[in-house]
Specification:
This protein is globular. The two termini are 46 Å apart. It is α/β, with parallel strands linked by helices. It has 15 helices and 18 strands. Helix 11 links the parallel strand 10 and strand 11. The chain is 31% helix and 20% strand.
């Protein structure tokens, strides 16, 4: 059954013309902590699990990992500002033993595999629903500064209406960006809380005291979040201008019944229910990329995937658009006799058709690495068979780095090595960050537009060459990425 399914889906993909590969494409995967996958495991067991996931994702063509490091104003990294996460050690405030820094370790592991690492935080959640008040560390912001928070249902959140709360999260972000060699900084879809029937957000008094000139509390809440988004992006870029700031909002901006420019959907809305005006952030250039979570299937009665991806592609021309894909909802109930139950080929066909779609982020890394529904097999054999570079972001930097210098080859104890030197630069931040290695057969025209000729993307200044006695002749080209 498994082999028949793989053969069928590959044949369908080929029929839909999916063999062409984009040279520049964001291919990400989320690794979360709130699912408890680290709890109860030793440092060695967690590192082994993550190494296995990264190895499989690398084979699948993934070129960026979005790693959750702050789930409830806590830390999966060494922090003087917030307590160690219970989702790492089982107890908030308890350091891992034997000691390690998961974020520093993940940066190193991802870079060894040529992948970007984006640090992912939840900007507002201060106490997760699975955490009781008695489980909070004395270092938690909920204990230290309860005046910055409010309770809603079983959550405690930083209050978006308080500038002090925004300043606090920006301080945390600046600390991460300054101390870790991350490539991106990422926030998820939790702004004001997802609405619960019968529950009201307790901010009416604050609105009356400090309305910022707004008459409508909804407009005031949206402005609070937008102010924070702008401040957070500026904070990140002040520390390191090249670090990419991305947001992954809920998949529906507005329904057409509420806004003529909305999508033909009938679901919860970013703008009206979470008070997140995502298009304002995009149009003003306050974020560097957007990953709407389109976790539904094609033909969904309330949120049709095809209608939504086309809507986002139409409205996201000002910033790179990546699509958040639910692997489980794409491949569930797979039936080789019915392609509509396994929608990977149809969804990736839409990705290729829409010019403004320049990437994908997989929800989530673990099920991709486990090859649920042959999803990983399809990535490595068809959709992401060739390696890809990250999309251009000329609004961050439009100047290419200089070419590598002193390129050559030499025998070492590890074999025949291709080596080069980093190009010289006069300005901090303009350094070459990664290198792309292309290989062409003897007599073959050098064509750097052909993604299939990329053999490696690396943070190193060397590459081990395959050697079979010198019978095969190749031309190698190395270019630099900043």
């Amino acid at each position: 059954m498994y082999k028949r399914l793989v053969t069928f889906v590959i044949a369908l993909a080929l029929t839909l013309g999916m063999t062409a590969q984009n040279k520049r494409e964001f291919r990400g995967a989320w690794i979360q902590c709130v699912n408890g996958q680290f709890m109860g495991k030793s440092t060695q067991e967690i590192q082994s699990m993550l190494s296995n996931q990264l190895d499989e994702l690398q084979k699948d063509g993934v070129n960026a990992i979005i790693f959750q490091v702050r789930a409830e104003c806590d830390a999966l990294y060494e922090s003087d500002l917030e307590p160690w996460s219970k989702f790492l050690t089982g107890v908030q405030g308890k350091a891992p033993s034997p000691y390690w820094d998961p974020l520093a370790w993940m940066v190193e592991q991802c870079h060894q595999r040529g992948m970007e690492l984006h640090a992912w935080i939840n900007p507002y959640r201060a106490k997760h629903g699975s955490t009781s008040m008695g489980q909070l560390s004395d270092k938690s912001i909920v204990i230290k500064q309860p005046n910055l928070c409010f309770s809603y249902d079983n959550l405690v959140l930083l209050n978006p209406g308080l500038k002090e709360a925004a300043d606090y999260t920006c301080k945390v972000a600046a600390d991460i960006v300054k101390r870790y060699d991350i490539d991106g900084f990422h926030i998820d879809d939790y702004f004001y809380p997802y609405p619960v029937a019968g529950k009201k957000i307790p901010d009416q008094e604050l609105f009356q005291k400090n309305s910022h000139g707004f008459w409508n509390i909804g407009d005031w809440r949206r402005d609070n979040v937008s102010r924070f988004i702008k401040q957070l992006g500026e904070t990140i870029h002040q520390v390191k201008p090249w670090v990419k700031f991305g947001v992954s909002p809920f998949g529906i901006y507005r329904n057409k019944r509420n806004d003529p420019n909305g999508s033909e959907t009938n679901g919860l809305q970013n703008y009206d229910d979470l008070y997140a005006d995502v298009l304002l952030w995009v149009n003003n250039g306050w974020i560097d990329y957007c990953v709407p979570q389109l976790y539904w299937h094609i033909g969904h009665p309330l949120a049709d995937y095809e209608k939504l991806i086309k809507w986002w592609a139409k409205h996201m021309a000002n910033r790179p658009l990546y699509i958040g894909e639910s692997i489980e909802n794409t491949v569930q109930n797979s039936d080789p006799a019915n392609p509509n139950t396994h929608q990977m080929a149809a969804k990736f066909s839409l990705h290729r058709q829409l010019r403004n779609v320049s990437g994908t982020v997989l929800w989530y890394a673990k099920v991709a690495a486990e090859d649920m529904g042959s999803y990983g097999t399809m990535l490595r054999n068809v959709y992401w068979k060739s390696k890809a570079l990250p999309p251009y972001m000329p609004f961050l930097d439009s100047k290419a780095p200089k070419k590598p210098a002193k390129m050559g080859d030499a025998w070492t104890e590890d074999g025949l090595m291709l080596y080069w030197s980093a190009p010289k630069t006069k300005k901090w931040g303009d350094e070459a960050r990664r290198y792309v290695i292309y290989r062409f057969a003897k007599g073959e025209k050098v064509n750097l537009a052909d993604a299939s000729k990329i053999v490696e993307i690396t943070y190193d200044t060397y590459y081990r060459l395959p050697y079979n006695g010198g019978t095969d002749k190749y031309t190698y080209v190395v270019t630099a990425l900043d």
